[in-house]
Amino acid sequence: MQRYVAFLRAVNIGGESSMVMADLKQVFVSCGFDGVATYIQSGNVVFGSPADDEAAILAEIHRGIKDRWGKDVPVLLRSLPELDAMIAANPYLGENSDYTKLLVTLLTHDPGADKQDALASPAGETGTVALVGRDVFVHVPDGYGRSKLSNAFVERRTGVVGTTRNWRSVLKLRDMAAG
After folding, report:
1. Does the pLDDT of residue 148 top 60, yes or no?
2. What is the 8-class DSSP label of residue 140?
3. What is the mean pLDDT of residues 15-23?
């Protein structure tokens, strides 16, 4: 049984995107997934599946969400081994021990290494980003709320749908998936 984390984009930021996490958990259970748990109110779901076909798993999640809420929500999926590789690949881990200033934007697919130049920090920005496969690592020493390196910035520059999580959440979700 492979363990996964599903990261839903733009959930519970208010208005029409709100989802009760208990209902979201039930959707994953009804999809046949095992050991389902949610983490905080931002669309993070840890679960197990005997399947290892990412496209099939995502199709099942999309169907369940569509059946329950009648809308399409971008879902990004990472297996436990992919989370471990992501954590090992973060080039900013030694630069800041404040994990609220380290983030990752998970992308639906690898936009290609040529997009690294497109992710250059705008003038006046103190933060930096690094593209590694389908993950964009973000280091914002002045805080994410003051940064121009938002999820929208990464999506515009790469042309790929993504969702951003702070490093503390990533580590917690990894531990949940491993436990």
Report:
1. yes
2. -
3. 77
Q: Let me know the angle formed at the C-alpha of 32 by 29 and 36, rounded to the nearest 5 degrees.
A: 40
Residues 6+ apart with CB under 8 A from 3: 35, 46, 47, 48, 79, 80, 177, 178
Sign, Cα dihedral of 168, 101, 123, 148: positive
Give 14's pLDDT tier (boundaries 50, 70, 90): low
Q: Outline where 70-132 has alpha helix (H).
A: 80-89
> Going from the N-terminus, what domains does the chain have, and what CATH number goes with each?
2-81 (3.30.70.1280), 84-178 (3.30.70)
Return d(Cα 148, Cα 11) in angstroms, integer: 21
- For residue 154, what is the enclosing H or E element? helix 151-158
Please, which residues have CB within 8 angstroms of residue 35's CB and are 6 or more apart in sequence?
A: 3, 46, 47, 48
The pair of three-digit structure tokens given for residue 105, joined into one six-digit string: 């934007």
